[in-house]
């Protein structure tokens, strides 16, 4: 993937992306609902303007956009995603995220710089969490060498890269690298940002579905370092002593 001197991925040339973007703007914009858009923008803390498309409407329109088109290759995916991110309305970003989730298995490790750009531009939890768990997670699962990048992200000043590093193993279950999971949690256990502290607890809570004893032992040993929010999230479904949290 070509990048600029500043490390920003360049938009590849793609005839398929041209078609997708032409169709996308042609069907999304006329379906806009300004009243709903204002409410959605307020709910998302003004991170971006919205068209006001509900999820069912947006997904139906997306099917129309993609109907009859071939499966996109990696350059096509990069071009669509980066071009969607240049459009102001958030639904275009959601379209790109959905497309990447669907086709991440066809992407190489060289696609990670594109994902990093999406994680750090117009960033909020609504796109970051899906990109982290489904796209970053998929890329790292296919090429474990990419953990060298997530090892850098976990110490980055950008809270969204930190959150993505914490959450990228969210769907791994028994494939989870527990040393890295627990190490990342300790690395950012004292972070001053709510979204990072929440992510620490969330990734522990999710892994507790696979190994509750390991999570409980980790929290017990390091409770003095973990934020109360992280502890609550981690133990929400298992409790501190064993059994469901509500069984005591």
Give structural notes.
The chain has 248 residues and is an all-alpha fold. The chain is built from 13 helices and no strands. The protein has helices at 15-28, 34-43, 55-66, 74-86, 90-103, 112-120, 125-142, 147-153, 159-167, 178-187, 194-207, 212-222, 228-235. Helix 4 (74-86) runs antiparallel to helix 5 and helix 6 (112-120) packs antiparallel against helix 7 (125-142). The longest helix has 18 residues, at 125-142. It is globular. It starts with 14 loop residues before the first helix and ends in a 13-residue tail after the last helix. The mean pLDDT is 95.
What attributes does this structure have?
mainly alpha, 248 residues, 13 helices, 60% helix
Q: Which structural class best describes the helix and strand composition? A: mainly alpha
| Overall average pLDDT | 95
Percent in strands:
under 5%
What is the CA-CA span between the terminal residues? 53 Å
User: What's the count of strands?
Assistant: 0
Tally of helical segments: 13
Percent range for helical residues?
55-70%
- Biggest sheet record: none
Q: Stretches where pLDDT falls below 50 for ≥5 residues?
A: none
Shape: globular
Order of helices and strands: HHHHHHHHHHHHH
The oligomeric state is: single chain
Cα-atom radius of gyration: 19 Å
Q: How do the strands and helices of this protein lay out in sequence?
A:
Blueprint lengths: L14 H14 L5 H10 L11 H12 L7 H13 L3 H14 L8 H9 L4 H18 L4 H7 L5 H9 L10 H10 L6 H14 L4 H11 L5 H8 L13
Put the structure in a nutshell.
This protein has 248 residues and is mostly helical.
């Amino acid at each position: 993937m070509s990048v600029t001197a500043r490390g920003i991925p360049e938009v590849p040339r793609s005839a398929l992306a041209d078609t997708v973007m032409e169709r996308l703007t042609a069907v999304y914009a006329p379906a806009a609902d300004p009243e709903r858009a204002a409410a959605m923008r307020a709910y998302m803390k003004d991170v971006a303007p919205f068209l006001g498309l509900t999820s069912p409407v947006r997904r139906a329109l997306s099917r129309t956009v993609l109907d009859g088109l071939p499966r996109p290759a990696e350059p096509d995916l990069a071009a669509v995603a980066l071009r969607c991110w240049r459009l102001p309305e958030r639904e275009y970003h959601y379209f790109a995220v959905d497309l990447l989730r669907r086709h991440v298995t066809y992407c190489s490790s060289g696609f990670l710089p594109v994902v990093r750009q999406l994680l750090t531009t117009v960033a909020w939890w609504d796109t970051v969490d899906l990109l982290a768990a489904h796209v970053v997670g998929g890329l790292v699962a296919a090429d474990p060498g990419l953990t060298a990048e997530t090892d850098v992200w976990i110490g980055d000043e950008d809270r969204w890269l930190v959150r993505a590093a914490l959450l990228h193993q969210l769907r791994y279950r028994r494939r989870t690298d527990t040393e890295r999971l627990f190490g990342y949690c300790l690395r950012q256990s004292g972070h001053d940002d709510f979204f990072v502290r929440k992510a620490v607890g969330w990734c522990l809570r999710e892994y507790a579905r696979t190994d509750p004893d390991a999570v409980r032992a980790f929290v017990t040993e390091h409770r003095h370092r973990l934020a109360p929010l992280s502890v609550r999230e981690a133990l929400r479904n298992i409790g501190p002593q064993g059994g469901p949290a509500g069984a005591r």
